[in-house]
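This week, look over our next protein:
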Amino acid sequence: MKLNNVFSALVLASGLTAFGAQADQGSGVVTFTGSVIDAPCSVAAGDDDQTIDLGQVSSSAVANGGTSTPIPFYIHLENCSVDTANTVSTTFTGADSSVDGAVLGVTGSATDVGIVMTDGDSNTITLGEATAGQTLQNGDNTLAYSAYIIGGEAPTEGDFTGVTNWTLAYE
């Protein structure tokens, strides 16, 4: 009888161990972030922090003021209400380029290049200056931009990063 109780205890213990091992077959944490803003539109999730790949561009293609192919990027505005404001402008800021003080500078091993940004009408955006106001409609709106590389006299090869911050202003 004693052997039977020991055997029963072992079976019960091994069953609990197996159950415990199956209870956690993967785990993790989900953190939700965001902010509430005082604006007539919401900025679409993910559009507040974007990475735009300008590609691999030949140094000879951008030498002496040459440019790369423009790459589009967008800021999507959602649930807009034009009751309080019906236009929006964007101001981009960041380090200016040694190539041209009005365009975005870069860091990294590539030198003598800058990043030009344009609005949806292909107008060059000057750092620190608001873009022309874009008329809003109720609902969703898309602010369209493009960016491309411009070179100085003798760009050198290497990787680069350019970072701009943007601010919306509604009227």
